[in-house]
Amino acid sequence: MDNLELTNNRIKKLFERTKNNQNLLLIEATVDTGFEKVAIEELLIKFSELNENDYCLSPGRIYFCIEILELTKINNLRSVDNFSIVIYSDNLNFVSDKDEDLNIFKDLANTIEFSKGLSVWSNFTDCPIQFNDSDSFTSTEFKFRITGIRSYKHAFTSMEAASHFGGVINDRFLWPVSMVEFHLEILLYIVADRVTVALKLTRRSNHRRNIAFFGPTTLRATVCYNLLLLAKPKPGDVIVDPLCGGGSIPIECALAFPETVIFCGDNHERAIERTCNNLEAIPNILVHHFAWDATNLPFKDNSVDVIVTDLPFGKRSGSFSDNRVLYMKILIEFGRIAKPNVTRMVLLTNDRRSLLNAMNKNKKQYWNKGQLLAVKLGGLKPLVSCFKRNKLIYEP
Ligand SMILES: C[S@@+](CC[C@H](N)C(=O)[O-])C[C@H]1O[C@@H](n2cnc3c(N)ncnc32)[C@H](O)[C@@H]1O
Q1: Is 245 a pocket residue for ligand 1 (Cβ < 6 Å)?
Q2: pLDDT at 26 (0 to 100)
C-alpha cells in the first residue's frame, strides 16, 4: 500500500469510529504544508487524552477524533488555520467517465447523513437551524455553498463535482445557494478515490489573528506559532526575534507563551513603526522592542534561551547577495548571545543557499543542526531550520 492509500484508509477508519458513536466527532484542521507534525504536537499537548489511534495527517491537514463535549477546546489550538466537522469519508469507485462519476456525487448528496454534524455545527457557530420532525431541516432562508477541492486525476473538475453535489443538497433541503452570504460552507474534498465531506466551523482563518498593520512580509500567526513551538519555549525563557519586521513572531509568542520574556527589533524604520502599532493594538501585551542591527545586538554573551526569526528571503525582503554577508554575521552574533548547550534557534528562510553557505563557511561553528522542515508558504517553498547551541565558548 502506498502512502496515499494508507492515509485515505486511516481517515476512513477514523470517520467510521465517529459514525458509530454519537458522542464522537472527526475534526479536520488545515495547516500550512510542512507543519503537520508540529500541529499534531500541539494537539497532543492540548488534548492530552488523545493517543496515536485518534489522529492522522495528510498534506496540509490533520484529522482527529474528539468527544463532542470537548469541541470548544479546538479554539485553544494555535497552529492550525480552519476547522471542519467530517460528516463523510470513503473511497468511491470513479470510472473515469465524466457523467457516471458526477452521478456518484448526486447519489452521495441524496444519502449523506447530516443530522449529527449539523446540530453540532449549529451549536458551535451559534447559527440556529430548524430541525423538523423527521431528519429534515428544510428552509428557504438558510443559505449554503459548496467548496470543491480536488487533487490527482479525475474526469471531472472540482466545480463540476461541487455543482452536482450542491444541486441535490438544494433539492433535498430547499436551501438556496449563495457563494458570498452563506450560513454554511460544505467542503467537498476529493483526493484520488477518497471523498470527504465536511462542515466548516471557522468563518475566518485563525492565521488572521494578532496583526492589524501588515507589511510586505508579514508572517501568518499560525506559522509564527509553529516556529515558536519548534523551539520548545519554557516559562522564564528569554526569547528573541532579532529581525522582527512588524512583530508577528514576538506578538504570537507573548500571547501563546506569556510566561516568557520577549525581545525583538529590526533595523528598518517602517518595520519598527509597524511593530509599535501592532503592539499598541493588543491590550496588556508585554514585548520589549528596539531599533537595532541584528549583527550587533544589545545583549550580553550567553544570555538568551531561544531565538526564533524569519530571515530576509531575498525576494520580498533583502537581496541574495546581501544575505550571504548578513547570514554569516548573524550566525556568529546569535552564537555570542546564546547560552552554550541551552539555546534553541529556529530560522525560516527561502534563501537556503546563503544559510548553507554561512553554516559551512563560518570558522567558528556554534550551532548543531536539528530538524529541517520544507514548508509551503504563499507560493514559496522556504526551509525551517532548527538548531541547538553547542558547547563551544564564544570568543570574539
Ligand atoms: C522577512 S522580514 C521579517 C518579517 C516578520 N517576520 C513579519 O512577520 O513582519 C525580515 C526583516 O529583517 C529585517 N532586517 C534585515 N537586515 C537586518 C539587520 N541587519 N538588522 C535588523 N533587521 C534586519 C528587515 O528590515 C525585515 O523587516
Answers
A1: yes
A2: 98
